[in-house]
What does this fold into?
Amino acid sequence: MEFIRPGTHVDFIGKRTYALCLSCLVITAAIISLFIHGGPRYGIDFAGGVLVQVKFAQETNAHQIKEALRSINLHQSMVQQFEEKGKHEFLIQVQETDIDLQNLDRQITDALTQGFGKDTFEVWRVEMVGPKVGKDLRKKGLLSVVYAVIFMLIYITWRFEFRFGVGAVIAVIHDVLITVGAFSLTNREITLPIVAAFLTIVGYSINDTIVVYDRIRENRRKKPNDPLAATINLSINETLSRTILTSATTLLVVVALFIFGGGVIHDFAFALLVGIIVGTYSSVFIASPILLLWETVLHKRRKRS
It folds into this structure.
């Protein structure tokens, strides 16, 4: 199936300056947001503490829950309601590290019983992470993304050329930065499932980029004397139908997860939603123009020498 007619020519390379400016603005906004918030907002997985998911039989709100927790001095805890209408489910997050985590789940249950009565709520899950474990998980989560990017650079350098690897890695870093910035701008937590989403974004972005790179290399062999800018434009246009079809079908699934998947995977689906859109954009407007920039810089150096 082809959405783009054969012979269609869109000057993507000619619009690379506008794309670069747009990317710089978005990344700058992400960095400013991270600076204002003091870095990413880490969840219990990385910050340490206790996460309690509670379902109430009757309608209630976060303020009432906090008042019930006042008896155990946890009224400053973060209480978040799931976004689905008609559901009385809440997440209670306690990130204090100077309290007894082992008995905290029982204390919360007792406090809610006193505040709302017995059999008026049900505790669905309790997760406890110590501060040292959280710090270790945070370090390993970051390293997993870094290692993934490094191995991608090695593989693409071996499979294509070093300049292709550099372009792909810059595009991946671009995608991850914007996704992290989107989480900061929307004040969402980064947890272990979100790290898994980041790794998925890395894989998706690289896959789309390699398809374009492979066509560039193929057209370069067919017409070695053509300008690189023309070859890149031709290659992007030839793979554009495939890119649109792949991205659209993937987005359909992710949008369905985002809307109907429930509060537990809502942030995970949000990360994939942002990552797929940005990853498709970067394969066309970031990764490919990097090749042209590389050749332009190399050509200038050869002239000087």
